[in-house]
Design brief:
CATH topology: Tetracycline Repressor, domain 2
Mean pLDDT: 92
Structural class: mainly alpha
Radius of gyration: 18 Å
Distance between the termini: 40 Å
Low-confidence stretches: none
Order of helices and strands: HHHHHHHHHHHHHHH
CATH class: Mainly Alpha
Strand content: under 5%
Number of domains: 1
């Protein structure tokens, strides 16, 4: 049983749940065509996401020994070789499931899988490219569901908001990991341009997100329920910006990263409530 739990931890199962729900919301926001196919898409994306997390930990084992020593691989709970084959299996399952959907779905699934691999092996260590890549793939979850709806263009709205949210959080996590990343001579934004510049860029991204998040309600795409919940989400984002400037230490950045993960769920709930509340 403990072995199963370790494998689940390796895949960040809580993040894959967010991926699953994001695909569902992408389809629902544009009036889903087929529930069975949308569920297949959600499972497909979740498997690809899980494979990506496991693969990332496989390639990041030396980095995690410094930045996150309590993760599964640095602790030796799973052998690196086992993690690699597990990641590969999950990704293949995700791609196979996409063949039950549309040609565009297959293309997105293969694209996401390839770029998750390139992200783990190369892009993650390159200035901003890794942040943009992972944010784009997270945003694609909504579009992956949206292409199975009558109005797929609506899924671009939560996808755009998700891209900004993840971009800001990824940059914040780079600030959190700056000590270990310097030891390993990685070139992240925080290392290349410094903490102050990172604080400024994250603030600009989150404030832009706060402003843009109101427009789906103003344009009558989502209801008043969306507006109420998104205001709470925006308040937490604004708090994160202020806290980021007041205390840019690793413990506070770790706390903000966890708070933002909760805020992400609140944003997802806002979209659901705005469409069906």
């Amino acid at each position: 049983m403990s072995k199963i739990i370790n494998y689940l931890k390796l895949t960040r199962f809580q993040n894959n749940f967010i991926t699953f729900v994001s695909v569902i919301l992408g389809g629902l926001s544009g009036e889903v065509i087929s529930w069975p196919r949308l569920l297949i898409a959600a499972f497909s994306a979740s498997f690809i996401s899980a494979g990506g997390y496991a693969l990332n930990d496989y390639f990041d084992i030396e980095i995690d020994r410094i930045n996150r020593p309590k993760r599964i691989l640095p602790q030796g709970d799973i052998l690196p070789r086992q993690a690699f084959y597990f990641a590969l299996s999950l990704s293949i399952i995700g791609i196979i499931l996409s063949f039950f959907l549309t040609p565009v779905s297959v293309a997105i699934a293969i694209f996401a899988t390839i770029f998750l691999y390139i992200y783990s092996t190369k892009f993650k260590r390159e200035l901003l490219i890794g942040n943009i890549t992972i944010s784009l793939i997270c945003a694609l979850a909504f579009i992956y569901g949206g292409i199975l709806s009558y109005n797929p263009e609506i899924s671009l709205i939560p996808a755009m908001l998700a891209f900004l949210f993840h971009m800001g959080r990824e940059l914040l996590k780079d600030m959190e990991d700056v000590i270990g990343d310097k030891v390993l001579k990685l070139e992240t934004f925080a290392i290349a341009f410094g903490i102050r510049t990172s604080q400024f860029l994250i603030s600009v991204i989150f404030i832009t997100l706060i402003i843009l998040s109101v427009f789906p309600y103003k344009l009558k795409i989502f209801s008043i329920y969306y507006f109420v919940l998104v205001l709470i989400m925006d308040f937490i984002l604004f708090y994160a910006v202020l806290s980021l400037w007041n205390d840019p230490t690793k413990p506070n950045l770790s706390a903000l990263s966890r708070i933002l993960k909760f805020d992400m769920l609140l944003g997802i709930l806002a979209i659901f409530a705005g469409k069906f509340g």
